[in-house]
Amino acid sequence: MSAIKKLLIANRGEIACRIMKTARARGIATVAVFSDADAGALHGRMAGEAICIGGSEAAQSYLNIEAVIGAAKASGADAVHPGYGFLSERADFARACTDAGLIFVGPPAEAIAAMGDKAEAKARMIEAGVPCVPGYQGEDQSDETLLKEAEKVGFPVMVKASAGGGGRGMRIVEDREALADAIQSARKEAKSAFGDDRLIIERAVTGARHVEIQILADAHGSCVHLGERDCSLQRRNQKVIEEAPSPVIGAEKREEMGAAAVKAAQAVGYAGAGTVEFLYDPARDEFYFLEMNTRLQVEHPVTEMVTGLDLVDFQLSVAEGDALPFEQGDIDFEGHAIEARLYAEDPAQGFMPHSGKVRLLEFPEMEDVRIDAGVEAGDIVTTFYDPMIAKVIAYGATRDEARMKLAAALRRTKLLGFEHNRDFLIALLGDEAFAKGEADTGYIERNLERLTKREAPGGAAAIALAGAALTDASFDNLLTGWASRRSAGFPLHLVNSGGEIVKTAIALDGAKVTAAHDGAEAAIEVLSKTENTIRYRHENRIGEARYARNHYHLEIDCDGAWERYTDFTLVPASESAGGDDVVKAPMAGLVTSLRVGPGDPVSKGTVLATIEAMKMEHQLKAPRDGVVADVFAKEGDQVAIRAKIVALKAEE
């Protein structure tokens, strides 16, 4: 093949930006594609040129093969890189690129097809002698057969979509009674995400670690592994923190798993970069094949940091027909790297995704810390796609060094505009079990309440900081005071994002701001205040808080802690009214099911409706026992955040 001259990236967000950086370093011109929702997105601004390929829904744009191929032809691109997600593991897309005379930067379509179907892939791996989890991957998809096979495997079992990954269409089922609902739910999600509702059943390995092996293969028969990554810290079967190497895998086991991964790749004629995922059972020191991701992984930077290799660079070289320039014995592993995924989501509310304008986004410049970001300040995080903001990756000579560098980098990262998981990531990195390398795939779920407990930004000075941010005073002349609509002091009624109510009085005296609450007082001295920064002194300590005001909402970020307050002192009574009688949409999204109608009796916890947003399905449940008074939406509706969905009759 000839050298790639112009590369179209069939993706968006941080991965599109990351691919462009390597392409540019090779002197390759880049083309971005974007949807209507991404008209001003960062990846489009970074590329040499950008082409709109359709509407905001992924099916209209990033999943539209004809539109992507058309954009490649129109731009004169000679190659297409699919990134990850979207079309990256679609064999028909790889074939369409080849048929159009384009170089597909990925494995052959046949390898994608073989590994893309979990059932077929598992059968091939069993034939190739790769260890697999006991389970069922047959053609008979009736509920009766799946129930019967689950009982054969023994509970708990994992119900998984046959056609996809990324945690979609995946459910852990503890007992027979819960299986029927899990099958129905997984089928629906799998159909929505992948257009295929087939399922497989596998034994759920408790206490397991998620360990995956990165492989590189060329079209000349050479295949090597680049060591393992441990991705055990997960929520909803999606990875949160990844690291290389794994803290529980030794050199001998690494080579054993690496050899199995190479065998798996060669069994399907693989070429390019790929990842073979395993479940590792520390108690038995055994591992089982899960699936192969026939693409670049989100967490590939940790492998790059411990090997010194650029995986995208090698993807492009293999696509151009080059042979790998090294053998297995030439690969060195040095140090430790850990990656954290920064998301617009609220961990305390079931990792509910959020959207909105990025009002402030600042990353630290630190040695051995890498930032792969998909947005900048001023950009919009929409409801249409995965809500990842960035990946923050740290390298150290030891695991502890990498862990502490990453935690420090996250504490110095400032993000305002919506709920996010940064504080949760900091808590995970400081958690004793993770620090010891003992956290398994179920650790987050078992310890969610403790890990999502939020600290107040500014600690004891938090409410005084809120008062300083909410006053109209600029603090420009701290010696003579100022004029303000809240000049001498004012009452303050705040509600934080967790629903905690704080009623206080703020007193202003020159540079001093005092908050009286629950019989105690906390005061700060404001040293300076700008549009989004307050420097202050509290008990002989100087601190800095970043903040953003939007109507009667206030966000504060200080000392690695974030909080959003609603200033109910200013909220109109008509907007603050509420109660347990109206169930509203927790985010903008698509109403995928409505399970009740007017007059239906419901119990507390009854699922009333489901809403799909950012590739995830969320259940709306009855807040109390009662009777449905009205239903305001119907299946298929696209609803706004806080839109009324179901009303219960008022309690008598």
UniProtKB/TrEMBL annotation:
Signal peptide: none annotated. One of its GO terms (molecular function) is metal ion binding. Keywords: ATP-binding, Biotin, Ligase, Nucleotide-binding. It comes from the Bacteria. Its cofactor is biotin. Residues 122-320 form the ATP-grasp domain. This is 3-methylcrotonyl-CoA carboxylase.
